[in-house]
Design brief:
mainly alpha, 5-stranded mixed sheet, two-stranded antiparallel ribbon, 7 strands
Length: about 500
């Protein structure tokens, strides 16, 4: 493997990661929500309790929100700042996946793993989408790499430090998304107890376990001490209801994951076929003993896949962490197939690198257009109109759309959190109610955001933006629409 091949792949993945930070619109509602919650942490000065449009939002631990807040604090209130650490985590994950492949196979398989992970359709989407999953994947990959080093390093002292780092990374995964952060542990423990029994005490080092508990549970403990009712919320609403009930209305067909693990690996379908052929051949040959590499990948992938398939809550990015071992397995199978076909297979040259660059450019353009043509484009346009009109004033946004408008608040750099208004009252034609002078809304300019096709007759004010999805009215007299207790939080 030429030395420049790895440098070329690393440079290409880095360029993709950071160019995507400059796309002006967010995918809604998820990206806008993660970015805006980080911005509201800065506005409130409270980094313990996440808030969205002024209301507490405890559905996820705070790590992703913290990264958005820090990025916005460092680089400013715009998409680059909100996305920066997510892009950095996605890029680092590709490098770490290469490290895992190098540890388990060879430098050539390491480069192939980085290519598959960084340029497959599903891998690209996951690494360039601001969400908890990009950080979850980073932490799990880092935990896996450090655990492998702990199992293989000849020095017990160094191995213990690798083990401690691995458990701290698992703590970071738990602080990012809770229990799903621990699925990589199945591969680590299976490999330890089945193949490296002499390193059990290293992997289960008491100092490492204490470090995990401190990192993983400190935020949960702090929030529960502030409000004991949150313990029931975390265990029932965020664990049981997501796994066993339809409460969260995310019960897509299990076939969703079949599509992700096939079409999502475009353009690497041929190596996927090589992997399936190898698995079939292994099963037909009496299932001989697996190598450490195959054993570890299988124990990382299969338990996660089973749990997410049986769970009643299924979302597209839930499988993103297992794309790391999946990319390694595909790269390893492709490398073995290439060895078998080497006499008639010409070496990849400049044309292959050119095609790879072209494919990456297609992905970036598709990402840009996808954000612009979806809900994010009109949101960005409405935010630009508010930001220009409200420059230098202390204004607030009132959201009457029934949808969350996090990216508008962020892109407009609203000095106050957005307030969600009840659409039921608005669409029934209720008049705006007068607000007492002690209300902050009464003393500041307000912008009311409606769906363009649902502006009530009682709405008044100067139109500063009107598009295919949204209309924005400006009020200077301090009126607002009546809030409704049924407004969803």
């Amino acid at each position: 493997m030429p030395r420049y091949a790895r440098s070329f792949v690393v440079a290409l993945i880095a360029a993709m990661a950071f160019l995507s930070c400059f796309v002006p619109a967010f995918y809604e509602p998820d990206e806008g929500r993660y970015a805006e919650i980080g911005r509201e942490m800065l506005l409130h000065g409270d980094f313990l309790v996440p808030r969205y449009e002024g209301a507490e939002r405890m559905t996820k631990p705070p790590f992703t929100y913290w990264t958005s807040a820090i990025g916005i604090g460092l680089f400013g209130t715009h998409p680059f700042g909100a996305r920066f650490f997510g892009a950095l985590a996605g890029f680092a994950t590709v490098l770490i996946a290469g490290g895992i492949a190098r540890e388990l196979a060879s430098p050539r398989v390491a480069v192939a793993t980085m290519v598959v992970l960084g340029t497959s359709l599903y891998g690209f989407v996951g690494q360039h989408f601001l969400s908890t999953d990009v950080f979850l994947t980073f932490w799990q990959a880092l935990a896996a790499l450090l655990a492998l080093k702990a199992l293989r390093d000849p020095s017990p002292a160094r191995a213990r430090w690798f083990s401690r780092g691995s458990w701290l990374a698992l703590g970071g995964a738990f602080l990012t998304k809770g229990p799903p952060g621990l699925f990589v542990l199945t591969g680590i423990l299976a490999l330890t107890f089945a193949r490296h029994r002499d390193r059990r005490r290293v992997i289960l080092d008491p100092v490492a376990l204490v470090g995990f508990v401190v990192v993983a549970l400190s935020w949960y403990l702090a929030t529960v001490l502030r409000d004991p009712e949150r313990l029931r919320y975390f265990l029932v609403d965020e664990v049981w209801n997501r796994v066993a009930t339809k409460v969260h209305d995310r019960n897509h067909s299990p076939l969703l994951y079949l599509g992700i693990l096939t079409l999502g690996l475009t353009p690497w379908i041929r190596p996927l076929v090589d992997l399936l052929r190898d698995v079939t051949g292994w099963a037909r040959s009496g299932r001989p003993r697996l190598s450490d590499a195959a054993f570890f990948a299988a124990w990382w992938i299969i338990p996660s896949l089973i749990v997410f398939t049986l769970s009643r809550s299924r979302m597209i990015l839930y499988l993103q962490p297992i794309l790391v071992p999946f990319a390694f397995a595909i790269a390893r199978a492709a490398d073995a197939a290439l060895e078998r076909r080497r006499p008639e297979a010409p070496p990849a040259g400049a044309w292959a690198r050119g095609l790879l660059v072209f494919w990456c450019a297609v992905l970036l353009v598709a990402q840009w257009q996808g954000r612009e043509l979806g809900r994010g484009g009109p949101y960005a346009s409405a935010a630009a109109a508010i930001r220009a009109d409200g420059a230098g004033s202390d204004f607030q946004i009132l959201n009457a759309t029934g949808n969350r408008v996090g990216s508008i608040s962020l892109l407009a750099d609203a000095p106050r959190p957005t307030i969600a208004l009840a659409r039921k009252s608005l669409l029934k034609g209720k008049e705006p109610v007068s607000v007492q002078m002690e209300s902050p809304v009464a003393r500041h300019r307000t912008y009311l955001i409606f769906k363009s096709e649902e502006i009530p007759a009682s709405a008044a004010g100067r139109t500063i933006y009107s598009g295919r999805r949204l209309t924005v009215l400006r009020h200077d007299e301090g009126e607002r629409f009546e809030k409704d207790e049924e407004t969803p939080r």
